[in-house]
Amino acid sequence: MSHERHNILNYKKKLYLIVIFRTNVDNKRMILPAKQQRSLDRINKILDTAELILEHEPLSALSIAKISVEAGLKRTSTYKFFETTDDIKLTLIQRYVETCNEVLSVDLQTHVGADYSRCLKNCVNSIIGFFNARPGAQKLILENTVSPAVTSSDLHKIAATILKHVEGSIGLPNMFNKTGVFLVITQVIFSILSLNAKENNELTEVGLNEAVRASNAYLLSCLATPA
After folding, report:
1. Domain with CATH 1.10.357.10 in the chain
2. Average pLDDT for residues 180-193, to the nearest whole number?
3. For residues 64, 69, 70 and 71, what is the CA-based torsion angle, rounded to 10 degrees?
4. CATH superfamily of 96-223
5. 67: exposed, middle or buried (Cβ count in 10 Å: 0-12, 13-18, 19+)
6. CB burial class (10 A; 0-12, 13-18, 19+) of residue 24?
7. Can you tell me the distance from the alpha carbon of 85 to that of 65, in angstroms, rounded to the nearest whole number?
8. CA-to-CA distance for 222 and 227, rounded, in angstroms?
9. Closest of 44, 37, 110, 39 to residue 71, by C-alpha
10. Taking residues 197-208, what's their average pLDDT?
11. How far is CA 118 from CA 43, 82, 108, in A?
12. Which partner from 36, 102, 114, 119 sits 20 to 30 angstroms from 13, CA to CA?
């Protein structure tokens, strides 16, 4: 890799980290050098436009050309930050997951579970509410059958929020790899909701109940295993 190419990739990475960081600062605008701020504004404009397209059109409609036109940008400007449509999808997925975790954290502040099943139902209800309010997220994360998919690293924060809710509501005994257990629980929830959305073109009560049942069964089996 050339030195110039290496510098460009590092610059994109820095800007990407800023985009992700901005989702956690309560919409307060960061003070950046003018050139970086312009680049950041363009990145967010590209992502906002892609999200708007997904609100009203199928995933197949997402392309660099369409996003550039609707964002009012030259195609070369879009390629400067995202070389492929999958790059945009991946960044949108991470943005959606961050937002989902924020919604989940707020929702769970007013809910306390009487048992593990109720705690998990609170979590699944919140996640379903997030996807129902954002058709683009449902299309990209739950109904998507092509790459990129949601990775384990994307789900760690949501898993930590679910773990915090269960521990705060009921408590948990000493157990082996607690963080890993709740990551699997989160993966189970997303997998079942994904199957439910693909089969019904929407999230249904069946998906809710199955996600709660399966995640609760896994948690109970882990609790029954000596630490």
Report:
1. 96-223
2. 96
3. 80
4. Tetracycline Repressor, domain 2 (1.10.357.10)
5. buried
6. exposed
7. 10
8. 9
9. 44
10. 95
11. 40, 42, 12
12. 102
Are 141 and 101 spatial neighbours (Cβ–Cβ below 8 Å)? no
Task: Return all residues near 101 (Cβ < 8 A) that are at least 6 apart.
Answer: 157, 158, 161
DSSP string, 131-175: HHH-HHHIIIIIS--SS----HHHHHHHHHHHHHHHHHHT-----
Residue with tokens 């307060």: 28
> What is the DSSP track for 67-119?
HHHHHT--HHHHHHH-SSHHHHHHHHHHHHHHHHHHHHHHHHTT---SSHHHH
Token pair for residue 81? 């930050």
* CB contact set of 62 (below 8 Å; sequence gap of 6+): 50, 53, 54, 85, 88, 89
Crossing angle of helices 116-133/152-169, nearest 10°? 130
For residues 104 and 225, the model is more confident at 104
pLDDT in tens, 53-95: 999 999 999 999 999 999 999 999 899 889 899 999 988 998 9
Q: Which amino acid would we find at residue 114? A: A
Can you give the pLDDT at residue 147? 54
The token pair at 184 is: 């699997």
